[in-house]
Amino acid sequence: MRIGYKLFAEGYSPREIVRQAERAEEVGFDFVEISDHFHPWLYSHGHSGFVWSLLAAVATRTARIELATGVTCPFLRYHPAIVAQASATTALLCDGRFTLGLGAGERLNEHVVGKGWPAVGERHEMLRESVEIIRLLWSGGYHSFEGKHLRLEDAQVFDLPDTPPRIAIATGGPDSATLAAEHGDAIFATEPRPDLVSAYGASGGDGARYVEVPLSWASDESTALRSARAMFRFSVPGWKVMAELPNPVNFEAATELVSEDDMATLFGYGPDAADHLAVAQRFVDAGFDHLALVNAGPDPDGFFDFFAKELDEPIRTLTPSG
After folding, report:
1. Burial class (CB within 10 angstroms; exposed 0-12, middle 13-18, buried 19+) of 22
2. Residue 188 contacts residue 70 (beta carbons within 8 Å)
3. Ranges for the Luciferase-like domain (predicted)?
4. Are 96 and 63 in contact (CB under 8 A)?
5. Do 71 and 36 form a contact (C-beta atoms < 8 A)?
6. Alpha helix segments (H runs only) across the chain
7. I need a labelling partner for 153 at 20 to 30 A (CA). Which of 64, 93, 201, 302 fits?
8. What pLDDT was estimated at residue 269?
9. How many CA atoms lie within 13 A of 192 on its CB side?
10. What are phi and psi of 96, to 5 degrees?
């Protein structure tokens, strides 16, 4: 079992994100994972630093902890050639500690360049072509590519690591699970769904299984739930809504009626380690083996201390209960 920490770039300034990554390494996390957003989910979050600058800073300020994007959409706001170059440079800066998480994106971040928002089937086709382009460029030398959606013309990435980064592909259904098995090295999910793990394995996938585990630590339960609602209520409507709304103000409106009771059904919350472990167990039972712990509580350093003293050892011993 590998345990990671979610760097919530939408909720904290770039300098604070780098500091939290350093603290995550200090207290024993195996990896940090960070989203690649242009906008925050909620207007009230107030931040959304550029992920590749953040990763470069974290890479040079840490020595052991692994880094991952969770996740990058490589075909609208970016071209996959740029993602291939950025990820190769990141891997070099951190001596191979980097995993490139890729996904089909959200309108929230990708519409800003004015290219429209394709249907999910088309986005999966574009994601597949993007992975092909990225792997081509990682193989060295000049390459061109002519796909149904994407083109590459006579391009080479000159600074490449000896071993290419692992690619984890975001999975929310059987189609993306099959895509991950056929074109990726790992899967990335946000829900405790055994069907995703099963579909990945049935299609031949045998790599790492990343997932985000929603927790909210505070010294009392009411504070923890209040903070979880303030920071993470955007996740309650589910992925079909999260992928489609265009701006933070829309998420503010769509989640206005989300209650603290709603958050309690999803999050481990409060000061008791047993409650947090019970939520983590759901994801272990679903078949995931790389748990990225989200802290929606108001005190990151309190959470780091809590992890080191009460959560680190028992969460690593969790096994599927079935």
Report:
1. middle
2. yes
3. 11-270
4. no
5. yes
6. 14-27, 51-61, 80-93, 107-110, 120-138, 174-183, 194-202, 221-232, 239-242, 248-254, 260-264, 273-285, 300-306, 312-316
7. 93
8. 98
9. 16
10. 85, 15
pLDDT digits over 32-66, tens only?
999 999 999 999 999 999 999 999 999 999 999 99
How distant, in Å, are the alpha carbons of 39, 153, 230, 243, 308 from that of 252?
13, 41, 10, 15, 34
Q: Which of 208, 194, 219 is nearest to 299 (CA)?
A: 219
- For the whole model, what pTM was predicted? 0.97
Q: How many whole angstroms separate alpha carbon 190 and alpha carbon 18?
A: 23
170-208 pLDDT tens trace: 999 999 999 999 999 999 999 999 999 999 999 999 999
> HSE of 32 in the Cβ direction (CA atoms, 13 Å)?
31
Q: Tokens 């481990």 map to which residue?
A: 268
Tens-digit pLDDT profile for residues 129-171: 999 999 999 999 999 999 999 999 999 999 999 999 999 999 9
Average pLDDT of span 103-124: 97
Domains in the chain with CATH codes: 2-316 (3.20.20.30)
Closest CA to 291 of 189, 172, 185, 181: 189
